[in-house]
Amino acid sequence: MPQIFRKLNEYIDSKATNYVFLGILLALSFIIAFFKITDSDVWWHLKTGEYILAHGIPSTDPFSFTAAGSRWVTHEWLAEVLFYLLYKLGGLTLLIAFKAATSAAIAYLIFRFGRQRGISAAICAAIAMFAVAGMSYMMYPRPHVFTFLFLAILCYLLFGQNQSAKAVKIQRWFIIPALFLLWANIHAGFILGLGIYWIVVLKELFLPGESPDPMLVRIKQSLYPAVLASLICLVNPNGYEIYTYTIAIAGNPTFKSTISEWVSPIYLGRREWLALGILGLASVGSLAAAFYHLKRRPDISLMVVGVAISAWLAMRNIQNLVIVLAFAILAIPFTAGRLRLAGYDPPEHGGSLWQKPAIALLSFAWIIALFVLIFNYQVRDDRRDYKLFDSGIRTSAFPIDAAAFLNKVNYSGNILNILSDGGYLIWTGYPRWRVFVDGRLDVYGEAQIENYRKVVGGGVGALNVLDQLNVTAAVLPMPPGLGDIRNQLSVDSLWSLVYFDDYYLIYMRKTESCREIVENYGYQTINPLVNGYGLDSPLKLERYLAESQRALY
Prior knowledge:
Layout: H1 2-12, H2 15-33, H3 41-55, H4 77-116, H5 121-136, H6 144-158, H7 165-184, H8 190-206, H9 215-232, H10 241-250, H11 253-258, H12 273-293, H13 298-313, H14 318-330, H15 336-341, H16 355-378, H17 400-408, E1 413-417, H18 419-429, E2 433-435, H19 441-456, H20 462-468, E3 471-477, H21 485-489, E4 495-500, E5 504-509, H22 515-521, H23 541-552
Helix pairs in contact: 2-4, 2-5, 2-16, 3-4, 3-18, 4-5, 4-6, 4-14, 5-14, 5-16, 6-7, 6-8, 6-14, 7-9, 8-9, 8-13, 12-13, 12-14, 13-14, 17-18
């Protein structure tokens, strides 16, 4: 029996096992992130990329009629151009493959970092898989996926030890500034990266550890490159506004009250069990990592605690936490003493021969369990429309057929819509039509968002607001979705239902510009919002049947 365990230990330490765990990790990381588009902001990002290539970087809003001409800090312009070029090259499938490849690349960086520090392939893969799980429900083809990748690269560079002076110099003066130059033109998450970088720099300046270089040398090696990286972020179309904008957005209460990913996980219901579970485990891991790093790398301790706090303030920061935490755990000096403290005594230090195979087996089980949990989380909304390793669009998430109808009838004008549909309507119909609102809340401002809530909710005077804004069409989800104003539109003599499907309704105002559409497609009897779809009298049967045939067609 001891001989068998010795052979197992040798195999676990072999290159073959390394490649097996790495292969499993990369494959599952890619598959997990390869799913249909379900996020509404993807679409206005794509349209912005198209707009930039045709007209240049906009400084005011071109897509809506409620915020037309308002200042727009297009801080994600480079990502939007890149995404649009990917779309033109390979459609939605290539976009989805790109973000799946990004997920795998981050997993690889975490795995490689741990292996370089002598940690077993099984443990490295298990920790990387936890980070992948934490990112999974936000792996959309949106600019923030670059922040995930750049954050992983930054941690890979900053958390390492025993690097040569030449390697550190190249990183600090060339690689990191170049990274921030890209980052500041791709996503506002560069602010988090700068914060992490400056924590490391301040530690190097004032808590240099054993045998420190003179202060002037440390200033030259650490401070000056950090100043360069901070200044180079100003090389963007918006100049210094890239800093002020980011700070303003982070403290904007409208974001926290309107967009779910900005809401504190404290207020998440059971539906978000994956996010809550990962955050709970990550918080415990953060405290443990902070404790172990406190003596030698207090900068890492401060980082993980700070990012953990931010994750409790906004759900979207959980992804940043799991990335930083993965590197922080793997950066712990796994000396024999600390391994014993953690309950593991390797054979080379006199421990049992069965421990290493057991840890490898548990790591494998952990990886598979996380994959299964994530898969079940992803299919929870629509099992009929979900396939493993699938591309395209989740049909129930967007007004796909409704927008196709508007295009078929050549509609142009101002559209009332709910916030989550604005992006898709921008993508499919701009510049022929403009939207009421979309996910760019910074463009609309708090007053307009409150006006949107009032109108869509069917508040007092909502129809008058539509009249004042010259709204001629309303694309609204079927109940129980947002949009109680549909009840007012369905009975108002100035509006007519012209389209409906299983998910959406379209009402059109009886104006001269829409007269032909209303005459050809208007429903006078059918009303999907009432029992019987409006058939409340035998006298309406003939017209009801005729309209039903048109609806079916």
